[in-house]
Design a protein that fits this description.
This protein is α+β, with helices and mostly antiparallel strands. The protein has eleven helices and 17 strands. A five-stranded antiparallel sheet has the order 8-7-9-15-10. Strands 1-2-6-3 form a four-stranded antiparallel sheet.
Length: 392
């Protein structure tokens, strides 16, 4: 069954929720593991007053028995403590950069509240809860992902060359969820300066995924291409305006000889090795067995304390965009949301490859596939019929 996510909920309604279909039976889903991920999403220097109100916790309302998935749809609920929707005032001056203006026109309303409550990044709490479940599934299959902040404004982190475990440890120790501790001072100055100026800060987040088997995604059907799916998953996150995989836009500036990753002989029993990973783990729309490396650019948040020009939909008066409580910078949160989005997409592609109604079946099928795939580049054996080239 395909892995499929739906979310619901308004920013200041009673709760946000996720329905996640297609998780095989037998996966242990401890609420504490989901909660730890939700807590990471709430962190980051630059968050506003709302994050001091919320204490995100998941309530798993369906799909579990004895702490394990039944294979039924999961319902994941995260309650809003700031559930003030019915008391909040109308918003009539659309904020440049937000969904307000286009949403007012689309929905035929002069009150952007009808739009912004759903356009709010609060919905990413539900996405993160579902992503945490996807990460538990991936871990069972030897796949680990970590999302982290790679730059804020002009401040670029020197991301250490490390595995996911060390990246995660360094990330978790950082107020910006950035594995380069040396960048923290400049990032703090940037965010504090923006706060003082009534402005906001964007940045770039990166997700690294290790242990991904080759062949997830597809070269045969355009919409099944893993790169397209990862890009779409990241672009669906509010405020994301650009996505790169591996070298990304830099690949366009290089000659082919400097953009591709040489193929070296397999070590015994393994896959051919690569001496670099410019492809970011994806070639021809499929994972190639190297770590997946994707980046997403988050624009600065559009709620400004010193707002840009706007027009009032009720009075017609020229003025400025609505101001309200918000964050100065949510890039660290975006790193966690990006990790969730990527984990969900990789998990979906994995389950397409393996099939399986139970985790035992998924793992059995994955093991059989990997054994067969390793034989493709194994030293050819003599064969009386058909020859090595056609061996499956
Ligand atoms: C958001 C505005 C802020 C953020 C919110 C997203 O909320 P509020 O308007 O209540 O101050 O804190 O993010 C979250 C609530 C969250 O959980 O990430 C927006 O306009 O998108």
């Amino acid at each position: 069954m395909a892995l499929r996510l739906s979310t619901a909920g308004e920013s200041h309604g009673p709760a946000v929720a996720a329905v996640l279909e297609g998780v095989p039976a037998g996966l242990a889903v401890p609420a504490e593991a989901v909660d730890a991920f939700l807590a990471l999403r709430q962190r980051g220097h630059g968050r506003g007053g709302r994050m001091r109100i919320e204490r995100d916790r998941v309530e798993i309302l369906a799909g579990l028995r004895g702490g394990r998935t039944l294979g039924n749809p999961l319902v994941l609920l995260v309650r809003n403590r700031d559930a003030t929707l019915e008391r909040l005032p109308p918003v009539t001056r659309p904020r440049p950069g937000h969904a307000d203006l286009a949403g007012m026109l689309k929905m035929g309303t002069r009150d952007a509240r009808d739009v912004l409550e759903r356009a709010s990044a609060r919905s990413t709490a539900a996405l993160a809860a579902a992503g945490a479940v996807a990460s538990l599934l991936l871990r069972e299959c030897g796949i680990e992902a970590a999302g982290y902040c790679a730059s804020l404004g002009e401040v670029r982190a020197a991301v250490p060359d490390g595995d996911v475990a060390s990246l995660r440890a360094a990330r978790d120790a950082s107020p910006f969820l950035c594995p380069d501790a040396g960048a923290a001072a400049a990032m703090t100055a940037l965010v504090d300066g923006a706060r003082a100026a009534g402005d906001t800060v964007g940045g770039v987040v990166e997700v690294r995924v290790e242990g991904v088997p080759p062949g997830l995604g597809d070269f045969r059907v355009p919409e099944a291409r893993l790169d397209g799916r990862l890009a779409a998953a990241l672009m669906r996150i509010p405020a994301v305006k650009g996505v790169e995989i591996g070298l990304g836009f830099e690949a366009a500036r290089r000659p082919g000889s400097g953009a591709h990753d040489p193929i070296l002989p397999a070590r015994r029993g393994g896959f051919p090795r690569r001496s670099s990973n410019h492809a970011g783990g994806v070639e021809g729309g499929m994972s190639n067995g190297e770590p997946i490396l994707v980046r997403a650019a988050m624009k600065p948040l559009s709620t400004l304390r010193r707002p840009l020009p706007s027009v009032d939909a009720v009075t017609g008066a020229e003025g400025t965009g609505a101001t309200q409580r918000s964050d100065v910078c949510a890039v660290p949160a975006c790193a966690i949301v990006a990790e969730a989005a990527v984990a969900l997409e990789v998990a979906a592609a994995l389950l397409e490859k393996t099939g399986g109604d139970t985790m035992a079946e998924v793992k059995r099928n994955l093991g059989a596939y990997l054994r067969a795939a390793r034989r493709v580049f194994a030293a050819p054996r003599r064969s009386s019929s058909g020859g090595a080239a056609r061996r499956r």
